[in-house]
Design brief:
11 strands, alpha+beta, single chain
Length: about 350
């Protein structure tokens, strides 16, 4: 994520800001230029009356600018279902939308295609952000539909689940990155020449999922799993191994990108930089390992758990390099066609 400044007074802005706390001007994030613009009290972009702030500013805390006033922004338009106004999960919905906007920016920066389900009802992407206040909800992905149990937005609930499931890390953004990994399996792997290489690295994606799920929860994780997988959950099935690996790739790319924006990493390591080919991934890892170690030590200095409590074995890095290559291939193909 970039280091933003108010376009009116130069005060630093966080990605979530809708008002500059220095000059009190309204601001909105413009996805087209990946930067902020000034908006007036009516939510209209200064100097461009056709554009304005997303109508979901009050409902979802959305601070994005839309091309045509009154229409939803690119992130909000991906949400198909949300809780009714007044539902106890509405604060969690706001938190989930905030995490989703960060996800969408990273996907755009990496050049990954985001096909809205309204344009492609069969394989497009959409989100169901559902309240489990009255009905049970299962977080997951199916054919381009990402479902999130908004109870995950409650810190106490999420931490209880993290501990009970013996997970070192559990966040809303982490859920979105994992589930979007399933979506990009279909986009990047399923119908491509990379499928055979996927089988070599991850296993058979067509293996019976329910049997794998039952085995995972009845027998637990295999001994020595750390040498092959990025997390214990990744051991369950090749599809989950890919989704976990892809999520960690996004974790690393975004964190290195943010570090570069604030001068903790070289400027050339931003998400906007191509980093194509094996050399690009090697460079990414060379940047990430000391950065992750330093951030973990900073967290410990504040009495917190490690920011990144994972070890990346050579086998895991091979899998991540595979994901990196597919992402950069898509980016290069889009760039060549434009």
């Amino acid at each position: 994520m970039r280091d933003f400044a108010c376009p009116h007074c130069g005060q630093r802005l966080a990605f979530e800001n809708s008002v500059c706390l220095s000059c009190s001007n309204g601001v909105g994030f413009d996805l087209e230029v990946l930067d902020f613009v000034v908006v007036d009290r009516d939510g209209i972009v200064a100097g461009d009356s056709s554009r304005g702030i997303c109508p979901n500013l009050d409902t979802a805390g959305c601070n994005w600018v839309v091309a045509t006033s009154g229409t939803l922004c690119r992130s909000c338009s991906l949400t198909r279902t949300r809780p009714a106004d007044g539902d106890p999960e509405m604060p969690a919905f706001v938190a989930a939308e905030r995490a989703k906007r960060r996800l969408v920016v990273e996907l755009v920066e990496l050049g990954l295609p985001i096909t809205d389900r309204r344009a492609d009802p069969h394989s497009g992407l959409t989100f169901d952000l559902l309240s489990s206040h009255q009905t049970a909800v299962t977080t997951g992905h199916h054919s381009g539909v990402i479902t999130l149990d908004l109870a995950e937005g409650d810190d106490v609930h999420r931490e209880q689940l993290r501990i009970s499931m013996d997970e070192p890390y559990r966040t809303l953004l982490g859920h979105f990155r994992h589930e979007i990994g399933h979506y990009y399996f279909a986009v990047l792997v399923e119908s491509s020449a990379a499928r055979q290489e996927f089988r070599i690295l991850f296993g058979d994606p067509g293996a019976d999922y329910q049997s794998a799920l039952d085995r995972h929860y009845s027998e637990g994780v295999p001994a020595g799993w750390e040498s092959e997988y990025v997390s214990s959950y990744a051991t369950m099935h090749p599809a989950e191994d890919w989704a976990e690996t892809f999520a960690h790739y996004l974790h690393i790319r975004d964190t290195v990108d943010t570090a570069a924006a604030f001068g903790f990493a070289p400027a050339g390591s931003t998400a906007a930089s191509p980093m194509s080919g094996p050399g690009g991934f090697t460079r990414l890892v060379e940047l990430w390992i000391p950065l992750a170690w330093a951030l973990n030590m900073v967290n410990r200095s504040m009495g917190h758990r490690d920011l990144y409590p994972f070890a990346l074995s050579p086998r895991v890095l091979d899998k991540m390099a595979f994901a990196h290559r597919l992402v950069t291939q898509v980016r290069d193909e889009v760039a060549a066609a434009s």
